[in-house]
Amino acid sequence: MSSVRLALGCAAVAGLAGLALSNMPASATPGSVKTGTVKTGTVKTGTVKAGTVAVVDKAEAVKLAFTQALIVNRQLGNPLSQGELRLRPVPATDLRAAAREGVPSVADIRTRVARDRKNISAHFGSAALLARENHNVDLTMVHLADPNLRALEDGVSQVAFTSVTVSGNTATITAKAHEWTKSVVRQTAGGNWLDVSPEGDMIYNAKLSMGPTGTWLVTDMIGGFANGSGP
Length: 231
Prior knowledge:
Radius of gyration: 17 Å
Number of strands: 8
Strand content: 25-35%
Distance between the termini: 19 Å
Structural class: alpha+beta
Number of domains: 1
Helix content: 25-40%
Number of helices: 5
Oligomer: single chain
Order of helices and strands: HEEHEHHHEEEEE
């Protein structure tokens, strides 16, 4: 739940702002522009696997790699059943079902942590982003253990690229993503559960580099609310 590391009072802002975003500056480099949209469904472009460059069009591999990294960022802490790296339509919130959800067990949390750290290592390639993402795994797990919070799941439903520039083993992108959070909170034990499920559009500028195994890794990423989408 990545990105929803929610706490009562700041849940909506924290959930959509994406606590795992880098503060490092980044901007798309002017140049060749390709516009495309990754629609709701499995993140997959032809035979591309995990952003490898074994494709004719490197730009498509770059788009896939960024999309997967963004999903990793958003889905930190998601239940194991919601761990697949794919775009997901925004689900409805079932308050009754959410209220029946218990705090995850220690074993469950450890399994989620291991999965998330593995995904982070596979999709991010700079020390700053690796440290930030892993720190946010820790924050997410603290919220999962909160008895007055049920962080149900987080996701990305759509990514639209407005700029993709590839130069050798580096690339820059600009994209807009629709992100969502599903969670419920209560102020006191035994109190009524309240739906806290923000969603909105984010604008991202990111840089990617070719990793040692031939995959594209995100090395710099910064985002902000799209116009009219912020709190």
